[in-house]
Amino acid sequence: MARRVVLLAAGAVAFSPSAPLAQPRLRLSATATDVETDKEESCVSFTVPVPASLTKAAYKTAAGEMAQTRKIPGWRQKDWKKVPIGVVAGAVGAQTLKSLAIEKLTETEVHSAITGLGVEVVGQAQLVGDVEEIMQTFTPGEPWDMRVKIDIWPEAVWSQPWDDGTLAVEVEREAKDQSTRDKALEALRERYCDIEDAPADHVAREGDVAMVDIDGYLRDENGNRAGELPIQGAVGGDDLELILEPGKFLPGVVEALIGKKAGEKVTVPVDFPESRQYREEQPLAGVKAGFDVTINAVRLRSLPELNDAFAGKIRPGLTLDELKQEVENTVGGQEEDKTTDTVHKELEKALAERLTSQLPEALVVESAKQRFAVMLAEMRNSGTDDAALKQMISPEGFQKYLKVVRPKVVTELRGKLAVESIGRSIGVQADEQQVEEQMELVKRQYEQQEADSGAAFNEEKAREKVTYELQRVAVLDKVRDQAKITYVDALSPEETARKMGIDVDNLPPEVQLG
Asked: What is its EC number (predicted)?
């Protein structure tokens, strides 16, 4: 296969001098001629006529750069401006000099011509033809026609219309989770529980409330105070209210208070683990600390019965049945939202299958790279050590990832292409008020992230994502109205296990499904 010359704007960096050279005066605007658009291949080809004055100027500039950066026999490098072009060509090779001159022209001419085409390009342009042929057609000081090909954002080419009445998907309905409803009611009982002072001789037990003073510090090998903890502000304080439930506070502190009485003091050594929580939320991972805890009082908590009186504590006049219905509306609404998300995803897949558009490889690779970066960030946040991550961050590592993720990337890109096409054809756009409301939520989230990590907020990018997602939902809602959706009930954990061939009736007692 004939080799191609890839037009990289940064391709001349290897030849660039430490100080920039004066560039030839190029035209303000290059014009593309003989434009050919291939929708199936998602590319555009065109010719850029380059006048003789520019081919000569580019060749001269290339010779100057070579003279400044290469050793030219018989000449001192500081005299590079005086070296004749023929001498430079003889030293580095005429083909090398031509190649750099062509790169000089493509940096401005191709970019200018593409701008005039008014298309959304993807990746980098290529000169059409093999290297030897291109070099033969280029002569400094003579006009030259650059034939260029570049990928563009594809257009949707449908194998069959999306709205012909045959679009159908099967969707697993989100299972009704009674435990979620029970947890919601239990959380309300916890929030509106009754609290009273315990008798003076009461021994603290799990579920009680302890009013405590806590003093935290660094601990040496002998358990003595060795300085302040390495965080902003104290870990602890006076008159803190602790619900005595193991695992809900600093490691070991709650456990040490259970079995104690008001007025007692305890010292709790804490060796913070090397975990994500203590590495990111507070810089305490691996720290050896000590906490002096004084129990000022113990209070008793009693959870209310689920009845109308309890519901009335939440809102006057509210009955238990009405409260349960409100919980059902909230939890059931979340389950319905999840089902709708699944419907949208299945519709996108079905729409993607109806497209015949060729996706540019550059588009697929760039999308995969973004996924790859997100995956690595999530792995780091999950505690994967840097050594393991470094083994993955390599061209070979990415190629392995690309091979696995390519089918999913292609389907998602085709789905996006289909949604955008339908949106344009039926005139569906994102609701501006919804965009503004979502932007306010996004800004609040970013403000919190900025406080934690110093990340800057890119409003333009955020608005673009919010607008697209709202438009996507609006378009897919319209598609759903014309598609056949078959809902099936989700399988239980036991049914799923049986479908996978697992003998659920003879599982060990310690194995829990779900």
From this structure: 5.2.1.8
Confidence at 380, pLDDT banded by 50, 70, 90: confident
pLDDT at 404 over 80: yes
Ranges assigned E (strand) in 220-287:
237-243, 265-271
Amino acid at 401: Y
Contact 211, 239 (CB under 8 A): yes
Least confident of 151-160, 391-400, 493-502: 493-502
For the CA atoms of 363, 368, 371, 375, the dihedral, rounded to the nearest 10 degrees, stands at -160
On the 0-12 / 13-18 / 19+ scale of CB atoms within 10 A, 481 is exposed
Q: Please enumerate in sequence order all residues whose Cβ is within 8 A of that of 470, keeping only pairs 6 or more positions apart, or say none.
A: 430, 431, 434, 435, 438
Model confidence pLDDT, tens digit, residues 314-362: 999 999 999 999 999 998 899 899 999 999 999 999 999 999 888 888 8
Q: Rounded to two decimals, what is the model's pTM?
A: 0.64
Residue 59 near residue 85 (C-beta atoms within 8 A): yes
CA distance 214 to 233: 13
The residues, ordered by sequence, that sit 6+ positions from 189 with a Cβ below 8 Å of its Cβ are 303, 304, 306, 310
Check the CA dihedral 24-25-26-28 and report its sign: positive
Predicted confidence (pLDDT) at residue 20 exceeds the cutoff of 60: no
User: E strands within 219-307?
Assistant: 237-243, 265-271, 288-302
Per-residue H/E/C for 42-105: CEEEEEEEECHHHHHHHHHHHHHHHHHHCCCCCCCHHHHHHCCHHHHHHHHCHHHHHHHHHHHH
**202 closest CA partner among 301, 268, 269, 293:** 301
CA distance 380 to 388: 10
CA distance 146 to 105: 10
48 near 31, Cβ under 8 Å?
A: yes
What the chain holds in terms of domains, given with CATH numbers, is 5-152 (3.30.70.1050), 194-302 (3.10.50.40), 320-506 (1.10.3120)
Task: Write the pLDDT tens digit of every residue in 290-299.
Answer: 889 999 999 9
Which pair of structure tokens corresponds to residue 133? 């042929």
What's CA 19's distance to the chain center, in Å?
Answer: 38
